[in-house]
Amino acid sequence: MNKSEKLCADIRRIAKHERMEHSGNYNGIRVCEQAAEAFRKSISGLGNLPASIAAYWLDTYIYPVPCPNDLPDTTRIDWLSSALELLDGDDSSSGCFTSDDWVAFRDMVNAEAEELPLPVLSSLMSMIMNHGAL
Q1: Are 120 and 109 in contact (CB under 8 A)?
Q2: I need a surface site. Which of 28, 30, 59, 72 has the fewest CB within 10 A?
């Protein structure tokens, strides 16, 4: 099981736990906040970049949702999983990212550039450039 698959399994486990512990009072926002924390903890050595991406995911794809108790849905879990793969240098599943996402990634990577290992920074900037966000 790779990091991305583990993250997806962890998110499903978090949601299952929420349903069991709060029968009838499921809180999708709470699950997504815990999912964002799981994402943040799933990769190290990248400064605050994972935390910034997790916050962006919450602010862009979770908090604005009108019916948050249906969260997290497959699309939003896949987005977070794809972001984790991106941090690992793989953009093969990056089709779920919008042009605004790529611009946000660029801004977050630029903000954390000094904290990132050079090979990671180079890989991320290359993927961002390939998606037209530079």
Answers
A1: no
A2: 59
